[in-house]
Design goal:
The chain is an all-alpha fold. Helices cover about 75% and strands about 0% of the residues. The radius of gyration is 21 Å and the shape is flat.
Length: about 80
Amino acid sequence: PHTSAIRATINGGSMWLAVFAVLMAAVSVYYYFRLIQAMYFKEGKGGAGIQLSSSFKYTMVVLAAVTILLGVFPNLLINWLYF
């Protein structure tokens, strides 16, 4: 699927855009691998855990619930935006 978008861009005469897209994809792969390496292959630093306030926890729960709700039922947002 991604290669067809690159091909369409090249066929449309925007070679610079296709090259830019490929370069940005390569950069993103580099950063994703750094994240994976930090998560799974490096030792964590010892120490006390982070203490989160109850208002922060409540906010995160509400935002997670809204994200899941709109992911499962996107028409709720779409219908609201149209009216």
